[in-house]
Amino acid sequence: MAARNDPDQGVDAQGGGVQSVDRALQILDILAREGDAGVSEIAEEMGVHKSTASRLLGSLVGRELVRQNSERGKYQLGFGILRLASSVPGRLSVVHEAREVLESLAAQYKETVNLAVLRSDYDVNVDQAMGPSTLATHDWVGSLTPLHATSSGKVLLAALAADERDTLLKRTGLPARTPNTIRNRAELEKQLLDISRQGYAVVQEEFEIGLTAVAVPIFNHVGNVIAAVSISGPTFRFSPETDPGLIEGLREAGLTISVKMGYRRQ
């Protein structure tokens, strides 16, 4: 019987290909991290025979998931990865991915939790979870609310490029919803800079007297803000900046949803 050149070949066969799949994924992880790598480097990091690494690389090259640099001879991620990755965002629904997190927030903080997106110059609430002690029963889903007077809206505004935000605000203006609504553009811009820096927005009675809300951004796979998640409650009992852990808990929830949308945590 001929001697085996690849000491891992029999193991892979017995494992029904599962081990090979796991190792192929390891290779993709290595190339994603390093940018490029040679067969020997990959084999050494994985702790496998060089022929095993070469065979797996050959399969990945055949699927265009990996390509070999003709000048350096090293391997890099191929265009097949981009093709696969680009198909994911369109199939992810932020409403679906966020639902469980919204319910968890509402149960933990016992207030109303909303998910909002930017649509047609408005902050549009696309999902909601109600806390057990919520006084109001208003259904905000589908409501169009002004960007400059809501916590979610300010998070979405702060994420826009300056010229895009300027065009939008010239179109909508800064109409007053309550005496507390910010109507001065310079003051609003200063607040938006603070929101970008701190990663959250708090609005107290700017949209509705007696209502306070705090919101954080949700990011997509390329780090763009695609939505905002907020917690709101009656001003007399809801003070997010003095409630220990609330803002940090909301931030963590926003990151959890972002990761579900393909965002890579820093």
What does this structure look like?
Strands 5-4-3-8-7-6 form a 6-stranded antiparallel β-sheet, sandwiched between helices. The chain has a two-stranded antiparallel ribbon with strand order 1-2. It is of the alpha+beta class. The protein has 2 domains: 9-87, Winged helix-like DNA-binding domain superfamily/Winged helix DNA-binding domain (Arc Repressor Mutant, subunit A); 89-260, Beta-Lactamase. It has helices spanning 9-14, 18-34, 39-46, 50-62, 79-87, 94-109, 151-158, 162-172, 185-198, 246-260, and strands at 66-68, 75-77, 112-119, 122-129, 144-145, 201-204, 211-219, 225-234. The longest helix is centred in the N-terminal third of the chain and has 17 residues, at 18-34.
Q: Any chance you could write out the topology, listing elements then pairs?
A:
Blueprint: H1 9-14, H2 18-34, H3 39-46, H4 50-62, E1 66-68, E2 75-77, H5 79-87, H6 94-109, E3 112-119, E4 122-129, E5 144-145, H7 151-158, H8 162-172, H9 185-198, E6 201-204, E7 211-219, E8 225-234, H10 246-260
Antiparallel strand pairs: 1-2, 3-4, 3-8, 4-5, 6-7, 7-8
Helix pairs in contact: 2-4, 3-4, 6-10, 7-9
What key attributes describe this structure?
6-stranded antiparallel β-sheet; alpha+beta; Arc Repressor Mutant, subunit A; 266 residues; two-stranded antiparallel sheet; 44% helix; Beta-Lactamase
